[in-house]
Amino acid sequence: MSTAQSATLSVVGIGNAIVDVIGHAEDTFLERHGMVKGTMALVDEERADAIYRLMGPAIESSGGSAANTVAGVASFGAKAGFIGKLRDDLLGTVFRHDITATGTLFPTAPATDGPGTARCLIVVTPDAQRTMNTYLGACANLGPADLDRELIESAQITHLEGYLYDPPLAQEAFRQASEIAHGAGRKVSLSLSDVFCVQRHREAFQRLVDHHVDVLFANELEIFELFQTSRIEAVIDRLRVSTELAAITRSERGSLIVAQNRVIEIAAEAVPRVVDTTGAGDLYAAGFLFGLTSGRSLPACGRLGSLAAAEVIGHVGARPEVALHELAGV
Amino acid sequence: MSTAQSATLSVVGIGNAIVDVIGHAEDTFLERHGMVKGTMALVDEERADAIYRLMGPAIESSGGSAANTVAGVASFGAKAGFIGKLRDDLLGTVFRHDITATGTLFPTAPATDGPGTARCLIVVTPDAQRTMNTYLGACANLGPADLDRELIESAQITHLEGYLYDPPLAQEAFRQASEIAHGAGRKVSLSLSDVFCVQRHREAFQRLVDHHVDVLFANELEIFELFQTSRIEAVIDRLRVSTELAAITRSERGSLIVAQNRVIEIAAEAVPRVVDTTGAGDLYAAGFLFGLTSGRSLPACGRLGSLAAAEVIGHVGARPEVALHELAGV
Description:
alpha/beta; UDP-N-acetylmuramoyl-L-alanine:D-glutamate ligase; 21% strand; homodimer
């Protein structure tokens, strides 16, 4: 019995395979240790260890932007896959357990030597904002050899995170993955990830968005940085010549879906108490991509994105705590 | 300058040093895998690995009953200490980080060989109840040699968890710790931990309560099991001949404080949404012991216990997410 047809996936994510270490602190902690609220900073192992020593009690929870997104897609009940690089250590075991437990396929072999599994030290301030310090560790070894061609070809959408432009080998994997996907007649989506990440790689990202990306996710800060404007109208005009579809998230003001022929405003979902915004953008992308790959209308895609984002900001951690297919009634 | 006086602690906890692995599942998961809801089962490493493979996505968070209690005492702003056995592995590093980050002293040397740091696989069902599977690992090596006499003598109260009766060497450490504390004119508190734990060690626990324990914590199920009765009046009479003070927790019905000359009913603190009951009893004990060691009245001790328990059941994980001294305004 052949299962080739039933193996078709909704989304395959390619990204950094990271375990989050999440603790709480006052704003003064950020100031004292040179952190910029709401952003992600890359740190080496020594600085990561120093920050960990300074941090209060924490919890460990699997993270990684694209990984969070595919875990969300799987939680909506769709079939997803993930490509990312771990080390064969305890954090690697935790990451693999958590993503495969969602039903997501994860064929990437772990590194058996070199740096350990990546970790992201996340400081959540009383306003629920998260400030991230990432030690990339084993992610530095993700390269074209880790791409599973069959997995990518079998997915309706290959979802890439902008953070992939930080580990050097991963940039090439990023380009090749996008070629494989398009070669198989599939779509490519990209999340811009972080405003500093856009600063670091702006020209490369502009080329990607203009030539390789079908669906773009960004928040306002990131998209303004990418196109060097602070006017949303200019962003919309620019997006229409670059991509088929974009979703701009705007925190509690919801999101804007920019299609070729229309702009759709989506309200944010009400959240009784915002606890930790880690994963909000990733889960918005999850809901949106689940909607898109299951043939739903654009407004429905946006609403599923809002719903998933609302779930994840209601608790600590960047992955859903409840089955999103039940929450959404899909 | 001598700091001997200022080194005096409120509470030193002695218990199993455990990292919790917390995931969500339906009730059918418990039934299918032979778990009894709301209780703790001891499992060997093989069974722990098997349960982990079966569990959905999880988060890792430092736990251990007495460790949760002293972390809570420290969060109220008092000085606490902890004695418990880790292995020098990654989970051990996580546990040590989290407890020392609260300001708690933790002098116990980690084991450099033998089984790994203990873990507790916790399944949270939709009713927020937790069902626990503990692999004791390195805790099996906690013994009298790990007791820090000076630390125990410097604490107003030495707090012991009933679970210490499971690892064989720890029973002797338990007895010696209680002798050291009483020898220094200090008090000893005990949490009965779990109804099955009381079943396993009922006679030993009865002797302890009658002869060595000054402050007893238990829920109704545990105290009924200890005294082989289901009448609360019989429990109260029995407690008065055994201990100076006892607090019986009754979930959403609050708690009963049983003193020699009176019984005080304490209401439960309102909780907008009960998310995960892991740590409820441990944090009740934290609030109560903080109150007691800071010279507060018994009703105030009970209210601080209710407050701390309410905080911890509002989120996933058994340790406070916010500073309890701020929450309580103390």
